[in-house]
């Protein structure tokens, strides 16, 4: 297991390096002059030149990338062009809020999607199965922004159960978490139902029932544990996607997370913050995938890594 872990870490290094290079090039090659943005439209040529020199914008792209990579290896993500604060401080301010929101969303998805999928699989072909699958289809197809606005209208404006937007108490987290997790809930329900139905048709399940084992033992000890392997994969990928894709939800509910920071930095062409935020998301996504792979050995003892 240790050898596999080290191998995955070594594989992740060129992946992250490629992400850094792609983001660096995409940001630098976008139209517009960041020096004008920093200094203003009426800045003198001398001021613009001084800004380009300060941020290294007057150097060739390969040299700019080498300087950025060298600073990155030292833990220096640069300085925000808007707030003049270190990028690392900006990320420390916003990223924990996104982690809280994404964690709450995936917990909502796991707590509702997996039980619904189990119920649908155990009642295959019934009205309950049909109803769960219809709800799952609606959940997958429903636009997040539409569901978020509808949730605000019903539960905040009409009923007054939850705050409309912002971050403060636990009540502020409910609607954003449900909105962000609705697609993951539907996906996990469909995945759990499909894999469990397939596992329940296997010979070893029939053998376990023929031995007289209790149905709950057959379901939860033998069938569900094997059916959860692809579900864990999907849940891990969904968690990584929630961390990177909470922009719309954070905008609707004015949640001060990484998505809002990233959008504002892109619009203002704040290169250091954009690069730092994307790199942080890529690192987190890679780490989540690694953790999912390591969970396989715990869920299924037959899984081993050479």
Automatic annotation (TrEMBL):
Keywords, in A-Z order: Cell membrane, Ion transport, Membrane, Nickel, Nickel transport, Transmembrane, Transmembrane helix, Transport
TM helices/strands, residue ranges: 9-30, 99-122, 134-157, 169-189, 227-253, 273-299
Annotated ABC transmembrane type-1 domain residues: 95-296
Record carries keyword Cell membrane: yes
Listed CDD domains: TM_PBP2
The UniProt record lists the keyword Cell membrane: yes
Topology class, membrane: Multi-pass membrane protein
Pfam families: BPD_transp_1, BPD_transp_1_N
InterPro entries membership: BPD_transp_1_N, MetI-like, MetI-like_sf, Opp2B
GO cellular component entries: plasma membrane
Gene3D superfamilies documented for this protein: MetI-like (1.10.3720.10)
Location relative to the cell: Cell membrane
Molecular function GO terms recorded: dipeptide transmembrane transporter activity; nickel cation transmembrane transporter activity
Top-rank lineage group of the source organism: Bacteria
Entries under PANTHER family matching the protein: DIPEPTIDE TRANSPORT SYSTEM PERMEASE PROTEIN DPPB-RELATED
Homology family: Belongs to the binding-protein-dependent transport system permease family. OppBC subfamily.
Protein name: Peptide ABC transporter, permease protein
Source organism of this protein record: Thermus thermophilus (strain ATCC 27634 / DSM 579 / HB8)
């Amino acid at each position: 297991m240790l050898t596999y872990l080290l191998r995955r870490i070594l594989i992740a290094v060129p992946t992250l390096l490629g992400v850094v290079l792609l983001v660096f090039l995409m940001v630098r090659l976008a139209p517009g002059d960041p020096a004008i943005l920093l200094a203003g439209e009426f800045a003198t040529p001398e001021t613009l030149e001084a800004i380009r020199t300060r941020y290294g914008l007057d150097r060739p792209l390969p040299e700019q990338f080498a300087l950025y990579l060298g600073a990155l290896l030292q833990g220096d993500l640069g300085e925000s062009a808007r707030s003049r604060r270190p990028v690392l401080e900006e990320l420390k301010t916003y990223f924990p809020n996104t982690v809280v929101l994404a964690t709450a969303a995936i917990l909502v998805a796991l707590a509702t999607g997996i039980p619904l999928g189990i119920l649908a699989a155990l009642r295959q072909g019934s009205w309950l199965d049909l109803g769960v699958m219809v709800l799952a289809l609606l959940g997958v197809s429903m636009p997040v922004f539409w569901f978020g606005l509808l949730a605000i209208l019903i539960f905040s404006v009409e009923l007054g159960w939850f705050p409309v937007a912002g971050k403060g108490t636990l009540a502020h987290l409910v609607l954003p978490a449900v909105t962000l997790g609705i697609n993951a809930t539907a996906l996990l329900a469909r995945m759990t139902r499909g894999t469990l139905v397939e596992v329940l048709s296997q010979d070893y399940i029939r053998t376990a029932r023929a031995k007289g084992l209790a149905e709950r033992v057959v379901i939860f000890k033998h069938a569900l544990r094997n059916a959860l392997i692809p579900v864990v994969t999907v849940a891990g990928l969904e968690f990584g996607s929630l961390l990177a894709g909470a922009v719309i939800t954070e905008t609707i509910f004015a949640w001060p997370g990484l998505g809002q920071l990233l959008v504002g930095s892109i619009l203002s062409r704040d290169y250091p913050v954009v690069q730092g935020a994307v790199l942080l998301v890529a690192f987190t996504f890679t780490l989540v995938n690694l953790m999912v792979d390591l969970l396989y050995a715990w869920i299924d003892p037959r899984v081993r890594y050479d």
